[in-house]
Amino acid sequence: MKLKRHFVIYCILLINLVCYTGHSSKNVDFDKESFRKNIKPPVGEVYFHDSLFLGKPRYIQYHPDSFLIVLDMGTKNQIKIIDLKNRKIQEMIPQGKGPGEMISAFGLQIKNRDLFVFCLQLSKVIKLTPDLNRKFFISEEFRIEEKQPLKFYPLKADTFVCISNIESDKRLTFLDSKGKIIRKLGDFPALTNERREKIRGNNDVFGSYITANPEGDKIFLACAYTDLFEIYDMKKMLINRFKGPSGIKLTVHRKNIGKIGWVYQREPPFLAYCKLDSNEDEVWAGYVGFLEDRKKRSAFSDVYPKEIMCFNWKGKPLRRIEFDKPVLAFDFDWTSKVLYTIEWIDENPDIKYYSLRNYF
Fold it and tell me: What's the predicted TM-score (pTM) here?
């Protein structure tokens, strides 16, 4: 009888241990079942234009005055502005280091109908503004005091924010209208090395995409290499940091790179999020969720998102939008409820659009 009682107690302890271990290894605040609605968009329409050629498109933005803006790395001019009303195409910002040029345009953002284009290598921003004839011109051009910030976002007409450079001990750098540093804020998520020692992270390890609400007082970050989100408030700063859905715990180890020194190498090599979009109520994040095998070359379809996860500004999951093929880039017209994407079709990148009005 005593042996039987000990066996029962042992089984109970073992069950509790397994349950606890399973919960810890999952290590998530939400999973795909947390979304109350899953959407499979109807068949989208391809946007045809005889004069439009896309080389290596990286971003697409919908402008509220009925323009589509594409950042294209594979053509002479890096910015293509498509007028959806008169179907005219304007190309701007050639490669270079001079006025009106960029080595490599690295991001597009729209604020108050101005288009902001960012170059990482030059720490440079060019602001494009449409005139009364629906033609964009360079209205401002300036350098950012923060050297090589990783992402740039216009919060307000006179306030910008960027992901600080990889040597900074602060997550975010805030700038004035001329690109001068106002302040740096934000710490980094917990991180351990291969010996399970706690170390300070940086924006190389936690490289992120960034968006903000229209008022510019809330900021949302999505990590590119681990499934982690952060929500900041301009008054309270960090108000939420949450994980999901893979449950992968990120660690790093130092990798020597010759005379240059060393860098942190992330383990496991994971691709999490790509591209953000938002309005006053929601944030949309493209989810990749791909665990790389360094011994194999990744397929094209593995490194781009096949779904968009939608949250409110408190981090609550709302819906998932699933695609049959990977999406290179996306942006949403919040008024007309039309989703614009860049997808690989018949061995060429093309613009597609989907009406989602029936889902809202």
Answer: 0.88
